[in-house]
Amino acid sequence: MRRAISKALTALIIVLVVALSLGAYLYFAGTAVKKPARKTVVIYASLSEMTSAEPSTEFSNSIMWMAVVYEPLLYYDPLNNVFIPALAESYEHDPSGLVWTFHLRKNAVFHDGTPVTAEAVKFSIERTISLGQGAAFIWDPVESIETPDNYTVVFHLKYQAPLDAIASSGYGAYIFSPNVVKYAKASNSTDPKITDWFNAGNDAGSGPYRLVKWDPQNEVVLEKFTDWWGWKDPKYPLKSDKAPDVFIIKIVKDSVTQERLVRSGDIQIAQTVPLEDIENLKNDPNLRVVMKPSFQNLLLFFNTRKPPLDNVLVRRAIAHAIPYEDIVKIAVNGLAKVASGPIPHGMWGHFDNFTYTYDLDLAKKLLTEAGYPNGINRTLVLTYTAGDVYEKRTAELIKSSLGRIGINVEIRPMSWQEQWALAQSGWNNSQAAQDLFIMYWWPTYVTPYDFLFNMFDSSSKSFDLCYYNNSEFEKIIDSAHQLEGIDRARSLELYYKAQKILYNDVPAIALWDSIDVKVARANIGGLDKAINPAYATVVFPQALSVEG
Amino acid sequence: MPLGREYLLKRLFHLIFVVFGVLIITFIITRVLPARPELLWAGPHATIEQIERARKELHLDEPIYVQLGYYLWGFIRGNWGVSWRTKTPVLNGLLSALPATLELIIFAFSIATVLGVLLGIVAALRRNTMVDSVIQIFSVLGASMPVFWLALIMLYVFSNTLGWLPSSNRVDETLVISTGFHPITGFYLIDSLMQGNFPVFIDVLRHMILPALVLSLYPMGLSARMTRAMMVDVLHEPFIRSALTWGIPKKLVVYKYALKNAVAPVIASLGLSFGYTIIGAFMVELIFVWPGIGLYLAMSLLSFDYPAIMGAVIIVALFYSVINLIVDLIHAWIDPRLRL
């Protein structure tokens, strides 16, 4: 009897569940799910996780989406060397170069609907300066900011500086709504509550897309902001009528998986795929491969305070013993350019005659001259960042080539943290530090000064990891930087002179300038416009066209 | 006899003890590693001054017991800290990752238990036949193939070559957006049903098949072998033979009397294999880009994101202890001798 009841009960439950599901299906099939409005979606895979949602201090990977959600005053197109108006329609400076005036466009609104005003610009930049973190240093020349009317911002500088380039920086130059104070229930602009409010996944920008989902470990979802001024301006170059409705940045932490996903169509754009597969991918009709210059380069630093590398002749000998062409061909499958000086190709301030010839006889001669006719009897230690296969291959090629002029090299892969800490210790104890050091560099904003100051000025203890100290050089780059905005020709002359000094002193050698290779599905157009080397890793979705 | 309250309390006390122990050990191990996570906080191209400031902010300049004190004080008040690489609260990250892992594991374990036990019974009933050998080989293979290898092979066959099943992620983002699907519980199968969103339900299911299958093979093989061995033993017990001679239907004898006696050790072994499955889930999540705890922990480990590592390890420890507790309770419920 009990068995029969339980059987009946089971049957009843099954019938109920089936009926309910069926009913629900029929009900919803008629309403929510049927014929959804088709939105176009582009998924862009990022190799790294997002690092914060705070526009004032972000100095890392989050610019991938911040550059889309927030706007600076200007964008810079480094390949054509022009500034593209963003929130500022035009700007000018007085003859002294100490007063810069920016005129804002009147139809720009923040995502909360309030207008972008001069007051907001002042608020944003002043907050970034007061927090003093991340890339806040770019505003160092600014003495004060005035707002004579709602749409005019005047910057008074302490010393001459290229404020247009600074205002177009990908880091630390974003404008956000002063309403954040209210939203975050903060007491003032530097209240940590505002940072918490941002990092909870809120945005206060004015850009073409809004932040709708903030899951920094997995994905960031951005949705078209229909009130963006750019959509309505038919002449504005940096947008497309077929821009995706939704742009997703998906974190896929390794390049092999990214390649798999872009092949299968699970993502539309891969940030990085293994360079050795590029030729193969080019032949896939479903994909397109886009290449653009990038302002990232790889450099080899010498410990200029430790024998034998304290001798400039030895450094010069090594400079002539590195097979630059082979390194590019083998280490990065030809997808880079042999560098000529520390300023990368395509950027202003780059000159083509700073490459050392590969000449082993000359190298041996220089070594003999330096007093090492039989080579060097100490093994030099070269450190690189473990896990980076391109650095690894480069290190191996350098080792084998230096072996041919009698210099033994021990390659030591280290985590970046250890590698950098060891290199830093060289400022206090150069004898205990490495001899050779490999690292990448890319600029905060596009100026030769970023490369020359950070890596070669003795006051930049963080990244002058060749321990180079040359006061003449430092004076030259300082004046070059100040003249950038007002006398570009003179500034270029000085930058040339500075690089000539480096060429002769050889504190470091630029090995190659990276090429930015992105792989996308064939139906994604406009990538060429959407990628700008001044904003490394960013794909501007407003310029993409989704076909078909 | 109901389970004793004393037994439960004792087990709960054990659980807290274990989790706390794990917390302290993990804390100490991560902090003695020669890493400089303040670089992570300060970001690339940070100056020495900014890094020094980061060290102070994160209390990394203080002795380890003081750091532990800060952590415990926060932990007790429900503040698990902020991830040093994403600057978002660890608890948020974990709570969004946990349902993804749970859904996957539960799904995988359900497949493993049902299929494993069934295969075991079939093998025991058809002992020493072809069927038995095939099942035996299958279960040995299932239990011994490395998960990461199997995952890659499955991906290659079912996704890349045949194109039957998707290769990554929990759900097709495009479908999510076009149908307006929004997570409620974080268990997408349940959420999509609750919203009557059948396209998403099917899609979630399709995404789950490969990772769940890969993950289920180890416990499936294990439970099949255990079930077979136990059933073979039990089927030879005198009480089974007498039951059969009394004319009780064979089905009833096998599935009720024999299985009930055979299944307890199977459940215990499944509980133990759960730890292995969590490790397997980490691999599977990495390969299938499954946004769960495994992926979260792996990424935290790679970047020395201390608070995130701590959070993930605590969750896993908690999870593991709770599962063990549940398994023991089920065990005790099935086998009354254990309650004594």
From TrEMBL, chain A:
GO cellular component, one term: periplasmic space
GO molecular function: peptide transmembrane transporter activity
Annotated Solute-binding protein family domain residues: 83-461
One GO BP annotation of this record: peptide transport
Name this protein carries in UniProt: ABC transporter substrate-binding protein
Species annotation: Thermofilum adornatum
Organism placement in taxonomy: Archaea, Thermoproteota, Thermoprotei, Thermofilales, Thermofilaceae
TrEMBL record, chain B:
Domain ABC transmembrane type-1: 98-331
Alphabetic keyword roster: Cell membrane, Membrane, Transmembrane, Transmembrane helix, Transport
Major localization listed first in the record, in broad terms: membrane
Localization per record: Cell membrane
Keyword Transmembrane helix assigned: yes
Parts of the chain that traverse the membrane: 12-33, 104-125, 137-158, 204-222, 266-288, 308-334
Topological type in the membrane: Multi-pass membrane protein
GO cellular component: plasma membrane
GO annotation (BP), single: transmembrane transport
InterPro entries: BPD_transp_1_N, MetI-like, MetI-like_sf
Keyword Acyltransferase: no
Family: Belongs to the binding-protein-dependent transport system permease family.
Name of protein: ABC transporter permease
